[in-house]
Amino acid sequence: xxxxxxxxxxxxxxxxxxxxxxxxxxxxxxxxxxxxxxxxxxxxxxxxxxxxxxxxxxxxxxxxxxxxxxxxxxxxxxxxxxxxxxxxxxxxxxxxxxxxxxxxxxxxxxxxxxxxxxxxxxxxxxxxxxxxxxxxxxxxxxxxxxxxxxxxxxxxxxxxxxxxxxxxxxxxxxxxxxxxxxxxxxxxxxxxxxxxxxxxxxxxxxxxxxxxxxxxxxxxxx
Length: 222
What we know:
- By secondary structure, this protein is an all-alpha fold.
- Helix content is 69%, strand content 2%.
- Helix 1 (2-25) crosses helix 6 (101-109).
């Protein structure tokens, strides 16, 4: 029985992998169940057994990609300063979204069309805010202005990358990373004094010692 369960699990993973590849390269309506099954090397019925329908499989693909996007925000060992961390994450995000362009465009621009997709998008945005808070050394509940500004910064980054993707990646990756980094830091500078020295202030703190939001000014600046 365990061998059979393993085999089913392997086939399920093959289906998800095939779907991730196809949905990354094609629009949702241009991907067919038969094509996914053929790419995965499984019978059509297996897709319906595990995911009920094409939409169910698509949601699983979005969940997997969201998990991978969040993992890209994890600080690498060689990212010793906040600047290195933020630049590193920006580069990883740009490269990942280029490799999964069609699916990423849905996640960045398809709000309001599907409640379950919207929920996944919201999870992604919250994770982005948590990442920015960690970069500038904030812990705990954020002041409203800080939270709102960080969401706006993430939204701006999404829109910049989406525009780049829809225009055939018409800018060198390094230039796009620099542009996104500059916009995010400029936004943070309006609510976080240390963001003007974002790298040094955020990055030089030992892990696990992010500073508390502490006392708030009336305008929400920390």
